[in-house]
Amino acid sequence: MAQTLSVVIPAYNEESSIRAGKLILVKRWLHQQSWDTELIVVDDGSHDQTPELARRTADQVLHIAHKGKAAAVITGLYAAQMDLVMFTDMDQATPISEAGWLVDALQKGADVAIGSRGMLRQGAPAGRYLLSLGHMVLHKLLLGLRLDDTQCGFKAFRREVALDVLEHLVVYDIDALDTIEFPSVSSGFDTEFLFVAQRLGYRIREVPVSWYYQETRRVDLSRDAFAGVLDLLKIMLGRFRHHYPRPGSREKETEIRSSP
User: Which end of the chain is least crowded, N or C, by CB within 10 Å?
Assistant: First the structure.
């Protein structure tokens, strides 16, 4: 089945990764595929030469005020034009070569395919490992999200599915996101996106992928752990206030629309 693919990469002060050839690796892999592709970099208000360097390789470089990774990813998803769309990190902790597994899952019927690192986090310090484990326990306990790894920055979707889910976000509604002064990995975005996708009845498949720890100054364990828990509580509150679609509402709506 022929498909087309958009790859979105959020970027905040990623000059060193681009100079190290990470973006070129992504573009090279895309050129090797038999489908039409596009590479979109979303500059999240960088203070270095990220946008200038990215323009040498990417098909599009979009610019937003610094609002965090979630805002950059959402901007890129809205701009994507291909049948399938995915996002990955500039540091390529999960190599772009693993994207074929996500595309394969979508071609076999999944609506959402997410990279899953399992319990093996090669090279990750104990703090990062414990943060991931704690998040895994909390999203299952508080939200009933039946997934093991919601935080891997390597996810792919059918474009119409991604747009539908984005329209139902509450905590990470793009119009409600403010500018910030510090790096933000926006871990709650992945959780809310998958929570909404699950409630809408979309088919989510976890796909094992390779992952290699990349040291970064953008992750602050204490700040990000607090922000992640706060986001989980906000999502849970929105759930109790019925701000999200009812489980299975998409199937019911489809049945009504298709009735004679």
Answer: C
